[in-house]
Amino acid sequence: MTDIEIINIILEGDRNSYAILVERHQSMVFRTCLGFVHNKEDADDLTQEIFIQVYQSLKSFKAEASFSTWLYRIAVNASLNRVRKTSKTGLLSRLNTLLGSDPKSERDLPVADHENPEELLLKSEQAKWVQEALDSLPEKQRTAIVLSKYDELSQKEIAAVMGTTEGAVEALLQRAKANLREKLSSGFKKKNK
Amino acid sequence: MNCALCQNYLDAWLAGTLSASLTIQVDSHLSHCPQCREVAELLKLSEAFIAGEKQTEPNPFLATRIMAAIEANEARVSQPVPAIIRLLRPAAITLSLAAAVFAGIFLGRLTTSTNLSGNIPAELVMINDAQMEAISLLSNE
Predict the structure, then answer these.
(1) Of A50, B77, B97, B102, which one has the greatest count of Cβ atoms within 10 A?
(2) What residues of A are in contact with residue B60 (Cβ under 8 Å)?
(3) Among A113-127, A130-144, B9-23, B31-45, which stretch is predicted with the lowest mean pLDDT?
(4) A127 and chain B: CB distance < 8 Å anywhere?
(5) Is the dihedral angle over the CA atoms A83, A139, A30, A161 positive or is it negative?
(6) What is the pLDDT of residue B131?
(7) Contact residues, chain A, for B74 at CB < 8 Å
């Protein structure tokens, strides 16, 4: 059954069919959220909020774009709102991280079994640079990078989600990658001073 | 190949999607440019970071939690709000606002107003500026 057919069944009163849509798209929404919040628990919570919001808004879905495009838009907007809200309490969060009381502060690169504690510490620091570099991108560039790298969408699909042209998406991705290179490089230099 | 060009090609080089001739040029540049090598290493890190995050799976009970939350929301919405609460709610809001306004006025009146004439010496209080001749008239004499 297509997404539209399932939506029509739900709108006719079969609420349980919504579980099919959830299971079909939850990984995609989760990955998108993770690209913004970088934390599994936060991404789970955000994904849940998004699907509840989508269910409540199903009547307003007009099928002008595909359901997945519409869902991506809601996921991106919800993630950006969460990021904005979090950045307002960023001072407290950074304090918690500094004091080591924030269990969500762990950001890791994949580690091999043979790696010693020094290597693990270095990997943890490197993961922190990467995350900070990604998080410091302007919102549109960050959105384009998440949709491209995490969701592996084509430029055409990204353009549909962002409501822009393919050319604009290409420019955004170029700028985002250049910014990322610069921020990673400056983060690395600061550490090695 | 210069550094700017090399760094532009690094994403494709890392992904293995560059043409053979460009790959050779990038390899050659990286072999003698430590700055670009460093950028390449950092980009590899960012790709590894993203790849690691992409391996994270959502909570396996997420769909169950979502459906349970939707059911709970619908049960809450379908419960009728008692008429007395519907009637009293706007009245309560209005009374709260009025109380806040009156409290503000009351607190404002508590502050004592300054009465300068109580602190001015008697000699100065007697001076009435309106009766004095303007200085410009005096200077014209």
Answers:
(1) A50
(2) none
(3) A113-127
(4) yes
(5) positive
(6) 56
(7) 15
Q: Other CB atoms closer than 10 Å to residue A156's CB: what's the count?
A: 10
Size of interface A-B (CB pairs under 8 A): 96
pTM of the predicted structure, to 2 decimals: 0.71
For the stretch A153-158, contacts whose Cβ atoms lie closer than 8 Å and that sit 24 or more positions apart, written own/partner, are A153/A72, A157/A69
Distance from CA of A133 to the nearest CA of B (A): 9
B39 and A47 within 8 Å at the Cβ level: the answer is no
CB contact (8 A) between residue A15 and residue B74: yes
Name residues whose C-beta falls within 8 Å of residue A156's C-beta, 6 or more positions apart in sequence. A166
- Over residues B77-110, the pLDDT tens digits come to 777 667 777 788 888 899 999 999 999 988 888 8
ipTM of this model? 0.79
DSSP state of A159: H
Structure tokens at B99: 């109380």
Residues A88 and A81 sit within 8 Å (Cβ to Cβ): no
A169 contacts chain B (CB < 8 A):
no
- B42 vs A31: CB contact, 8 Å cut-off? no
